[in-house]
Every structure is written in C-alpha cells, then in structure tokens.
Amino acid sequence: MMRLPLLAALTWMATATAALAAPPSPADDVALRQLGAAADAAWDAKDAARMATYYATDASLWVGGAGGEQQGRESVQAYFQRAFAGRVGDLRHVSEIRSLQLISPDTAFTDVLVRVEARQADGTWKVVRRFNNVSLAAREAGAWKLRVVRAYPIG
To answer: pTM for this one?
Structure first.
C-alpha cells in the first residue's frame, strides 16, 4: 500500500520543511489557484475526462470513504466517472485554499477546505459534505498538475 508512505511524506513535508517552504511567485500563485478553480468547474460539470487532465500522469488520489487509492491519471478518470455516474441532485464543489507553499521550485503543498454543496429548492446552497484536502501539485510539461491528493472527510 502506497497510502502510508505518501501520508508520511506529506506529514514530513508539512512539518519538517517549514524552513524550506516559501510562498509561490505571483505567477505560480495564480496558476495554482486557477488549477483549483478549473478542477472545481470540471467536478461541477461531472466531466471526468476534463477532471483527469488536471492530474499528473503518475497521480495518486485517495478520497476517504470512497474505496481505495487511485494510481495514475487513467485510474483517477475512472474513479471520477464512477463517482459522477452515481451523483444525484445539483451539487457543486467549492475549494477554499487555506495554505499554499512551494516546497521546491516545481512542487507545491496545499491545504484546502472543500465543501460539497447541494442546491436547495429556494436556490440557496447547503453544505452536505466537507473535506480537508492535503495535496501536492507538481509541474508537468510546464503546467501545474495535481500529483498527490488526500481528501479526508470532516464533520
């Protein structure tokens, strides 16, 4: 199982590399935030193929309570195809970046609060699930991609 070593690596990066971590450049900050917004939009549209394009070729995705770790972009796409096929109602995915740090010039560590919200009959949105996402993004072919994503249900 890769989950334990990846979790250990994420924990180490979050705690032991504080002296190495730095805010991203303005351009990287914009690009990383756009990556998150684009992934939210793909999730909202139930577009698994587009969602997968935001993940690195060798990405690793684990969503708590959703059955196992996905390895590689194709596996990530298949996961989202299954998840979107079973989705009922008008839902949206809202990501709030709480921390964004570069731990190397080509690797970013993010801590993101994610809300899944359902549209109510009166047009308002109600939170139905919350996740703490701890992730690494990496440059791949000049663009930021999600490399490791761990989504822990909260509340």
So the answer is: 0.85
